[in-house]
Amino acid sequence: MRTWDTLAVVGPGLIGGSIGLAALRQGVVGEVVGIGRSQTSLQTAISRGAITAGTLDLAAGVRDADLIVVCTPVDEIPYYVERVAEACKPGALITDAGSTKADLVARIERARSGSASWVDSVHFVGSHPLAGNDKRGSDYARADLFIDRVVVVTPTAQSRAEDVRDLRNFWTALGASTVEMTPAEHDRAVAVTSHLPHLIASAIAGSTPAEYVTLTAGGWQDTTRIAAGDPLLWRQIFFANRENLMAALSHFDQTLADLRGAIEAGDAAALERLLTEGKRIRDAVGS
Amino acid sequence: MRTWDTLAVVGPGLIGGSIGLAALRQGVVGEVVGIGRSQTSLQTAISRGAITAGTLDLAAGVRDADLIVVCTPVDEIPYYVERVAEACKPGALITDAGSTKADLVARIERARSGSASWVDSVHFVGSHPLAGNDKRGSDYARADLFIDRVVVVTPTAQSRAEDVRDLRNFWTALGASTVEMTPAEHDRAVAVTSHLPHLIASAIAGSTPAEYVTLTAGGWQDTTRIAAGDPLLWRQIFFANRENLMAALSHFDQTLADLRGAIEAGDAAALERLLTEGKRIRDAVGS
């Protein structure tokens, strides 16, 4: 199994900081260099034990890294992957932690094929850890964030089998189980399992009149929790996965229309059948 | 402040059992008689400390009670309130824990005005504790279920001020804060804060293909948690509050259409504004 001396994390926030914490805790890497945008956030990450060194200088930060994880907002991932590829050493492996994959992987592979400074031995394979919450910053980083979570790894025809294997081993060492999907398959799936719930949660919260807020209880609170997420990040995700999200929304609309029809018609059997179907799928996941 | 020697709970399940546990723990009552439909469930409630005695015989169970709480599914509440009123002692106060109020309170007041066996000194005032979850049965009852939760009390023109005051004091003693609303106001509010989220959660769960279930994470799980609720109970609630639920759904539809429009148009400013509005309302509630 490939070992990594130095891990670099571009954007050591909730996800990036948790990767650093977990990788150090598990002894998967010796050093974690955090590349941030302010000394304050780097200081926080160091004091949390999420990184062993921090710098604002991307080129300096990735120079000695064997593995680099780009944990920026999705729109910025291709840009940073390109900058990393120009500055890192031959043989380094680059991945990311973005919530969408098809568009950014295609942009990165186009950039790689057209780049003079991207050496042949530096490779990129996309990742998406299905973990995280509505918090931001390494203050909320946790060494156990990936334990029993799924990380989707998204190779393409250009990916080398050994990189995919090494990357899966890395995530496995952090406690996750890994799944391999094409970037397009990944985006179709997370449109349903992540992006649609976020959109709907926002619509529920946004349509709740202020005077009713004190009458909310556990159900509303659970259902709308992710609506507290960062609007800028989610705007980027929704745009990056627009087509799949709209398809998932159409499917949701149809199920909701069936429920509405049963309620309006007073059709007890149909309504119970639909509610039972939702319960069956929910029960399959556990609490 | 009025004291209660004996509390009777019709249907000592999650809510009814928690009322018994909390009332005994707080010393608000001396005895709690549970009226159930099987010896097994009564035995569970006794072993949990939720009731001090149990019976299948409604008339015997409520005979000595000063306060009776009917905790059955909403469709059965008027029936049981009438049976309680025929059997309880003069001066007793009856309430319920139903999730809808307008229809059942009207049915109970019509029954009272037309009943020969319902003595003048026995009164009913509706309650709705905004607590509970997708579990059923006194196995899940908790003495702290009402702490820091809201209980809506729904008096009408027929209600006596002292009964409303005593009932609010009872819930306050269990750790809740109380709010007074008319049954119609209550139903409009909970259509938005409880019934709509449940309907939507069911539609999200029901529209998730089985092959994607392993790719769900915290967002999907939070958003769909209440879809695990009992289909029969929720069918009754949706039917009992149909008009208000459909109005809440229309409002939700409009907010969702705005979000969809911004995504389809690629309107970043509009999408961020809508997501920020949802976040603002969600943040007002806390985690």
Keywords:
Rossmann fold, 13% strand, 6-phosphogluconate dehydrogenase C-terminal fold, 9 strands, 287 residues, 3-stranded mixed β-sheet, 6-stranded parallel β-sheet, homodimer, 11 helices, alpha/beta
Describe it for me?
Two copies of one chain form a homodimer. The first copy, chain A, has two domains: 6-181, Rossmann fold, CATH 3.40.50; 186-285, Orthogonal Bundle (6-phosphogluconate dehydrogenase C-terminal fold), CATH 1.10.3660. Chain A has helices spanning 14-25, 39-47, 58-62, 77-87, 102-113, 161-173, 183-206, 218-224, 231-240, 242-265, 268-285; strands at residues 6-10, 31-35, 53-55, 67-70, 93-96, 123-124, 126-129, 150-154, 177-180. Chain A has 287 residues and is α/β, with parallel strands linked by helices. The first copy, chain A, contains eleven helices and nine strands. Chains A and B meet through helix 7, helix 8, helix 9, helix 10 and helix 11 of A and helix 7, helix 8, helix 9, helix 10 and helix 11 of B.
